[in-house]
Amino acid sequence: MIELRRVNKYFYKDTEREVHALRDIDLAVATGEYGVITGPSGCGKTTLLNAIGALDAVDSGSITIDGTELSGLDEGARSRLRLEQIGFVFQAYNLVPVLTVRENIGFIMKLRGFAPEAIEQRVAEVARLLEIEEKLDAMPGHISGGQQQRVAVARAVAAKPKLILADEPTANLDSRNSEHLMAMMKQLNAVEKITILFSSHDDYVVEQARRIIKLSDGQVVP
Ligand SMILES: Nc1ncnc2c1ncn2[C@@H]1O[C@H](COP(=O)(O)OP(=O)(O)OP(=O)(O)O)[C@@H](O)[C@H]1O
After folding, report:
1. Per DSSP, which regions of the chain are E strands?
2. What is the pTM of this model?
3. What number is the ipTM of this complex?
4. Each residue of 64-76: pLDDT tens digit?
């Protein structure tokens, strides 16, 4: 489903500060895979996830999602692709502080025009799966960090995206909450058949993935 060919990405290109953040990346991720991108700080994990998620353009090479070449899309088409096909989970959970947990989880579905009853039903379903049903009426600022991260995951999966991209989803969690979140992501991958790609440099988290993609200095380590 995701295919990268000879992908290169620079920051500050052609200046003395130039960083060659992704170097000739070749990578294929099949539908239904549960993979982790790992490697030391600065090796390019976030840059790679942002490129696959059509958040950032690359300088050369090709990235396709189900055959759609990302560089061929204008900004409107890219944002539609993100909204309709990809669920994002960021390190900073990016929940909307003035909305309840329930409204946050249903947020993407609402943007996509799902009917209120369908949203209600699906929010209840994912809240059960992620064990946050009791917090549905709370505001994000009044629940724990681990619960907030689970809400962020629930929001990403609620609209049934084909793909979930998670950048260091356990970075701000203690080991118990990390384990809990990983177990839930694994279950989502198995039950909902969503392709999941996340980044981490936590050994425990990395071991949970079915596929490990190692990056070093912007290159995939064979
Ligand atoms: N917006 C940016 N502007 C300039 N340089 C950047 C930018 N984003 C990333 N870089 C540089 O690109 C390289 C790859 O960074 P990236 O954030 O992808 O690494 P990472 O593996 O995700 O690191 P970490 O584990 O610390 O989050 C680094 O050298 C970084 O300094």
Report:
1. 2-11, 19-29, 34-38, 60-65, 68-69, 86-89, 163-167, 195-199, 211-216, 219-220
2. 0.92
3. 0.96
4. 999 999 999 999 9
